[in-house]
Amino acid sequence: MFFPTLFDGSQDFQSRMQRKERLLALCDVFINEGEKKEEASKKLFKIEVALLNMFKPKNFIGSTSHEVAFEKNFQMLCHSLNSHTNENVKNMTVLETYSLLEMLKKQEKKNE
Asked: How do residues 55-98 score in pLDDT, each as one tens digit?
């Protein structure tokens, strides 16, 4: 991960670990036969249920939807970052955008 400090939540870590366990269980389902395959299937099912229960579904309908909020936040971020660069942020790659954001955070810490 290029910018772990921006995505360091414990829920994110737990989700990554669960997804890793899910992939391993899925491999066990494909590789094993008989009773071992059934055990792996049960384990896979439990992991998938845990992953599905980990996050609450977002509202994607209406003016207060998650999609609208995401778009507004993106636009606000672009306007904020545009004031610190000569380049149009919307034309920058994801890596360039997060690099700029991380650089600005470091500068802000130095100024405090």
From this structure: 777 777 778 888 888 889 888 988 888 888 888 888 989 898 88
Structural domain spans, the chain: 8-58, 73-112
Crossing angle of helices 66-82 and 94-111, rounded to 10°: 60
CA 15 – CA 9 distance, rounded (Å): 10
Amino acid letter for position 103: M
The phi and psi torsions of 43 (rounded to 5 degrees) equal -65, -45
Burial of 68 (0-12, 13-18, 19+ CB in 10 A): middle
DSSP calls for 26-95: HHHHHH--HHHHHHHHHHHHHHHHHHHHHSPPPP-SSTTSHHHHHHHHHHHHHHHHHTT-SS-GGGS-HH
